[in-house]
Each structure stands twice: as C-alpha cells, then as structure tokens.
C-alpha cells in the first residue's frame, strides 16, 4: 500500500513511451486499430471457465463489474481473487511487474535502458527469497493461489489489446513476482524528498535552509510533480500509497449507536485506477474492500466484525549513508533491449545497500552514498494483511498491524463490539529525537540506529479515546519515542476532519460520505481575508478583489472566489520571491506553505507592492476564465494515450474539478494561471456502518475495468461526481440480489 519521481526518469520514460521510443512493429500493430466498445456481458464472457481450484467456485458481479468471489476454501478464494485481478487489470499488473524487475526496455527498446538501469540498481526484488522463506504455510498457500489465479486469467483468450500493441505475452505469475510488486509499492516516501533537496546541499545557504525546512516547515505533502508528464515521472513509484484520509467514529457520536468508518485514499489519477473493488466469502471469512492490482491484500476493507482503513505514515524507512573509503562490490546485469543487442550495465553495491549516488535522478554530488532501505531486508507484509482480513476484534487487529513492516502506515479500526482505534504499522529505526545535521549519515550511526527496530506496539496508538473518534491525514504522530520522519503532511486536512467530527453526536454514514466531498480550506480563507484587508487599505478595487472578498473559502468547481484567489496567488508568490533577501525553501510541492511563509516574511512595503502587481496580473485571466473548475480540471485517460497515433482512439474524460492541495477532497495542483489537470488526489472512497454488515459502500474515480473500450472503464465517474457510492453487502441473500451475474469456475481437471 502503499516513492521516487525524478525528472531524469520522467525524461527517459517519456522517450520510452513516445513516438521515437516504440519499435516499428508496434507502429504496424497500432495504426488503424480501434478499440471497440465492450459491454459488461462481453467482458464477462472472457473470464476463464476453469482454474486450479480444489472445488467449483463462483464469481458474482454487479452492473459495475464489481466481483464477489464465493469459494469453499481460502486457497480457492485466493485463486478467485487472482482471476479477478487478471481479468480486470492484466495489462496494468504486467506493467507493474516489468517496472519492479527493470524490464521495460524489452518492450520499448533503447530509450528505457537508463530507466531499467536505475530500477536494477534499486533492486526491488532484492529481499524476495529471504522474505518468502518467512511466510507461514497458510500465507504461502494464499499467495500461491492468488498467483495461480492471475495466471489462469492471463492464459484465457483474448489478451487485453495492450499486449498486442506492445508485442508481448505474459509469463506465468509466481509468488516471487507478487512480492517484487509489493516492494515496488513499498518504495520509500523519503526518496522523493531527497531528490528535491539534494541539489540544495551545494547551496551556500544550505545550513540555514536545512534548519528552516526541518525546524519550521518539516512537513511535506505528496511530492507528485504536476504537469502533463507527471505519470511518467512517477513511474517507478506510481503505485505507492502516498496520501489519504481515514477516520473512525465511536457509537456515542453516531445516530445508530454503532461505529462508523471512512477511508479515501489519495493517489496518482489515471485510468485504470490504482485500486479495484473486490469481495470474497469462504467458510472462514467474508470481506469487501480495496485491493491494489497484483497484490493479495485488502488495504482498506470490512469483514463481519470490523472495518479498517489507513493513510501513509510518511515514515522514513531508508537512510542515505556515506561510504567514503569503504570497499564496494561491482555487479553486472544484462538488460534485454527490444530491437537491439542486450546491454550489460554495472552497478555498485555495498553491504548496506546499492550505491545510489550512481543514479542520476537522486542528484547526489558524492559518488559513494548508499541507499539503506528496510525493503532490502527480509520481512513478511502478506501475513499481517491476511490476518487483518480475518480479525475479529482490536487485539487481533493490533497483532496484525504490529507484525507489518513497510511502507509505514497509520491504520484505523472500527469494530462491531464498539471499539475504535488507531495505530502505526511500521518497523522503524531508533533514530534520536534530534534534528540530523544533514540528509546523509555515517555508517556507524546507521548501525546504531538500525540494530533493533521498533514495531507498531512500541509506537503511539489510541484506543477508544475520550473525544470519540480517531483520524489520520498523514500528519505527524503525537509524542513518538523516536524520529519517524522529518517530512509529514501539513495539518490542514487533519484539523478539518477534527472540526467536522467534533461538531456532532448524531453522525450518519451519509455525513461521512459528505465529508469526503469537503472542499473548504480554512487557512486559505483566513489568508484571503488578511490580504483583502491590506489591498483595501492601499485603495485597491476591482473584480478580482471583489470575488476574493466575497469568497467563502470553498474550492467548489463553480466558485469564482477560489478562481480569483488562485489567479492572484500565482503572481503574488513570484513577486514576493523576487523581493525576498533569502531563498525560501518551503518545497514546491507545498505551494500554500510557500505562499504563507513569503507573506509572513515580507516587509509591509514589499507585500503591498507585490500584492498590487498580483491583482493587476490576475485581472485578464479572471475575466476570461469564469470559475475554478474552468481552470482546474480532472482528466482520466489510459497511459497509451501518450502514444500519438493511439491518442484519438482511446476514450478519455476531462471535466471541471473542485478541491485543492489541502482540502479533504484532495486535488493537487500548483499555483498557476494556466488551465491544468490535477494528476494526484482522492481516487477512491470507502465507508462502513458497523451497525449493519450490509452497509458498506465504495466508489472509484473511473471504473473497475482496465480494458480499453470497456463500458465499465469509466462508469463510476457519475457516481464519483455526484458523491454516490456502490453498496457492498455481506449477507448471502443481499449479495445474491445485488450481484446477479454469476461466473462458475470449475477445477482444471474437471474442465
């Protein structure tokens, strides 16, 4: 569940998937091809009729292509879930597997060699063999069944059109493949921050800037570049679970008297979605939830006894370690290149990890810095989620989360017994509660801090708190015993959640669904009032100022006030930066923090001058743009639309979007006067009422199916925009009624 998005990777990946990067055979396969529209029944006809199960299973489907697997054993249930993943997202899972292994050049040729070299250096599968040896027999059987299910779907014909376009065929899936993808999804959030900060370490004011960043703005929101190329730049960690809101409300604050839970993950916005909705029933468990394609876990879910959700902890599960003078090992690896001879590349390794300073995207000036990552050590992330799926109460949930290592998560629980709780799921080094002198530490410090890791039960948690709710929005933990990270999310979202949950004692599931749509930005509202006062004090008037003055702080798509504030803020930042005597180091991924720091640091004269210039600069775009949603868009498109000759043949949606970087309905963007599409934010919603096992709901931004042209590729967009969710019942008779389309699957021997 889960982070590296360097510009060099973006450049190489854009080449790899651009016109020049694809082999001529791909061009021949693609020209003239159109993707016919497929009804759900046509797609369901492609589900394999036989699989390696011990007894017949069935998969029920609703009108949105949402599946519910019914099996007589958990192994067979895992096979069914694997079939679901392979049926709905086979091309997506194949991409994830190739990224995890550094095998993109096999598909797109020479332009991907440098990217594959980086991926081989990071080596996501490095700990596979040792980690798989840790799996208990039950977990191993579960994972093997899941892999067998994906393979069964891959062996069914026809394959998704992406395979024909790229001229590839899928290999059988193994538990090792699943683990490699799991570690890809566990890429450390800190890698993004390091990549951004490393160039600043050569700046003459680095010491001051580092102190400012850690001491004043030691928080960092999701570092996803905003722009047309953003998905490419984030490719190696596209699937990382990097944001989110999650909260549980105790029965004394709900109308029903039972707990409620809501979870809305934040992710790269693309089609297909980076989640899929699935459910399963076996004699041992009934469960609904969100699954990451290619992984046999319910990252967000609900069983008969409780519900869970989570957010990224932003824990630093890595260190950059200075290995000056140490003996390093050189390893050769061979990269297959489409249309060319294989390329042999050399990477440098150490006992503590790969020499990451050899990778250009990390922007390291030293040539002997190693990446020491928890993901390169053996651990078992499957068993904790397998146990969570079957948890009956808080102690069982707590034990499951305690065993979980990475990526670090804040986990939320709500039980039918009335218990609510929050705890950290992570294994973290014993870093002192002091600010480090630099990003890079010594080998001796690494050995000391990593000798004995803390687990979830050693870290802050809250069970049945007095306030009657627990919540997380990637904020810093309260009173941790060690330094978990220096870079957490800003507190705007968590404060808004607390404000909303504290105001009522009769909350319903509909209220929580409404909170997931909330677009109020209190800090922006407050700052707007302050700037309006200054502008009026110097005699400024005009339509931009009038719109900001009447603005209610809501980033609705139809808001003129939000538009005016954003069009005004972009030139205001430029003007204040030009007048600032010092470089402000609030990271670019925190645009609002950058704005407030500049305003607070400016002299009265500089602020008045920059404010006047900004109002003038905003007048023309404000007159022509109209509303926030006219400027701030949401675009859903298949990644293959980046190939010029496929762009017009693939469906895409583009529509106005509300929200901003710091609202509960997160929708990231820079301060800009240009029309733009958000590429990161809320991409799924989940709600559960523990009073009734049939009262679970979910929706995806987009749809379930990854097959180009499928009717269910975008069919949940209307629900998403209207704030509606799909009901996911657990009672057998309710499932039978709501999921009427049945795919029977027989054992292979009986086929």
Overview of the molecule:
This protein is an alpha+beta fold and 751 residues long. The protein has a domain at 522-553 and 560-626. The protein is built from 26 helices and 28 strands. The strands form six sheets. The chain has an eleven-stranded mixed sheet, with helices on both faces. Strands 20-4-5-25-26-27 form a six-stranded antiparallel sheet. Strands 15-11-18 form a three-stranded mixed sheet. Helix 4 (74-101) packs across helix 10. 56% of the residues are buried. The model is unreliable at 1-15, 17-21 and 216-241 (pLDDT under 50).
User: Over all CA atoms, what is the radius of gyration?
Assistant: 25 Å
- What number is the mean pLDDT? 89
Secondary structure category: alpha+beta
- Main sheet overview: 11 strands, mixed
Strand order of the largest sheet: 1-28-2-3-7-8-9-10-16-17-19
**What percent of residues are in strands?**
15-25%
> Distance between termini?
36 Å
Query: What does the oligomeric state look like here?
Result: single chain
Describe the structure concisely for a colleague.
The strands form six sheets. Strands 1-28-2-3-7-8-9-10-16-17-19 form an eleven-stranded mixed sheet, sandwiched between helices.
Please tag this protein with its features.
26 helices, disordered N terminus, globular, alpha+beta, 751 residues, 11-stranded mixed β-sheet, 6-stranded antiparallel β-sheet
């Amino acid at each position: 569940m889960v982070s590296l998005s360097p510009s060099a990777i973006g450049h190489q990946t854009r080449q790899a998937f651009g016109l020049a990067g694809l082999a001529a055979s791909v061009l021949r396969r693609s020209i003239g091809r159109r993707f016919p529209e497929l009804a759900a029944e046509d797609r369901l006809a492609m589900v394999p009729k036989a699989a390696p199960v011990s007894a017949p299973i069935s998969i029920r489907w609703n009108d949105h292509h949402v599946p519910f697997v019914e099996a007589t054993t958990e192994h067979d249930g895992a096979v069914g879930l694997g079939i679901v993943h392979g049926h709905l997202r086979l091309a997506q899972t194949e991409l994830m597997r190739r990224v995890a292994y550094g095998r993109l050049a096999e598909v797109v040729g020479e332009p991907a060699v440098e990217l594959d070299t980086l991926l081989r250096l990071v080596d996501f599968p490095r700990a596979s063999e040792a980690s798989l040896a840790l799996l208990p027999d039950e977990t191993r059987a579960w994972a093997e069944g899941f892999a067998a299910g994906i393979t069964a779907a891959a062996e069914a014909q026809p394959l998704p059109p992406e395979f024909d376009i790229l001229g590839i065929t899928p290999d059988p899936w193994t538990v090792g493949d699943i683990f490699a993808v799991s570690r890809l999804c566990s890429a450390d959030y800190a890698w993004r921050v390091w990549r951004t900060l490393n160039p600043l370490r050569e700046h003459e004011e680095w010491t001051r800037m580092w102190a400012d960043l850690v001491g004043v703005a030691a928080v960092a929101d999701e570092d996803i570049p905003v722009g047309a190329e953003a998905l490419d730049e984030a490719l190696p960690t596209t699937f990382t679970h990097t944001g989110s809101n999650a909260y549980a409300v105790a029965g004394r604050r709900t109308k029903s008297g039972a707990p409620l839970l809501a979870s809305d993950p934040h992710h790269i916005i693309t089609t297909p979605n980076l989640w899929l909705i699935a459910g399963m029933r076996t004699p041992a468990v009934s469960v609904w939830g969100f699954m990451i394609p290619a992984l046999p876990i319910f990252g967000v879910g609900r069983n008969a006894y409780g519900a869970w959700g989570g957010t990224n902890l932003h824990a630093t599960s890595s260190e950059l370690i200075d290995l000056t003078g140490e003996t390093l090992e050189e390893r050769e690896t061979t990269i297959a290149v489409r249309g060319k001879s294989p390329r042999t590349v050399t990477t440098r390794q150490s006992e503590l990890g790969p020499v990451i300073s050899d990778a250009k995207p990390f922007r390291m000036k030293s040539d002997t810095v190693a990446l020491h990552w928890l993901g390169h050590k053996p651990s078992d992330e499957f068993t904790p989620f397998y146990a969570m799926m079957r948890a009956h109460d808080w102690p069982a949930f707590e034990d499951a989360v305690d065993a979980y290592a990475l990526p670090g998560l804040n986990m939320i629980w709500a039980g039918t017994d009335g218990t609510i709780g929050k705890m950290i799921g992570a294994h973290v080094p014993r870093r002192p509660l002091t600010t480090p002198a630099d990003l890079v530490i010594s080998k001796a410090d690494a050995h000391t801090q990593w000798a004995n890791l803390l687990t979830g039960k050693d870290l802050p948690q809250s069970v049945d708190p007095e306030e009657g709710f627990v919540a997380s929005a990637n904020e810093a933990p309260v009173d941790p015993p060690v330094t978990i990270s220096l870079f957490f999310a800003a507190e705007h979202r968590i404060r808004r959640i607390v404000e909303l949950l504290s105001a009522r004692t009769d909350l319903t599931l509909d209220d929580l669904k409404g909170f997931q749509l909330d677009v109020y930005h209190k800090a922006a509202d407050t700052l707007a009032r302050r700037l309006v006062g200054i502008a009026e004090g110097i005699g400024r008037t005009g339509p931009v100022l009038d719109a900001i003055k009447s603005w209610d702080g809501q980033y609705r798509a139809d808001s003129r006030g939000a538009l005016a504030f954003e069009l005004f803020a972009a030139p205001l930042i430029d003007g204040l930066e030009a007048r600032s005597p010092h470089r402000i180091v609030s990271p670019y991924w925190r645009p609002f923090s950058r704005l407030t720091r500049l305003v607070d640091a400016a002299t009265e004269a500089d602020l008045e001058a920059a404010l006047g210039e900004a109002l003038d600069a905003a007048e023309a775009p404000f007159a022509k743009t109209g509303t926030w949603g006219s400027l701030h868009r949401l675009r859903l498109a298949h990644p293959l639309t980046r190939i010029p000759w496929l762009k017009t043949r693939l469906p895409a949606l583009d529509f106005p979007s509300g929200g901003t970087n710091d609202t509960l309905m997160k929708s990231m963007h820079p301060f800009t006067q240009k029309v733009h599409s958000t590429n990161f934010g809320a991409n799924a919603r989940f709600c559960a009422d523990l009073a009734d096992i049939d009262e679970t709901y979910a929706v995806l931004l987009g749809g379930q199916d990854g097959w180009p042209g499928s009717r269910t590729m975008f069919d949940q967009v209307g629900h998403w925009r209207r704030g509606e969710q799909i009901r996911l019942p657990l009672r057998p008779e309710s499932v039978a009624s709501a999921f009427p389309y049945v795919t029977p699957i027989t054992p292979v021997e009986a086929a």
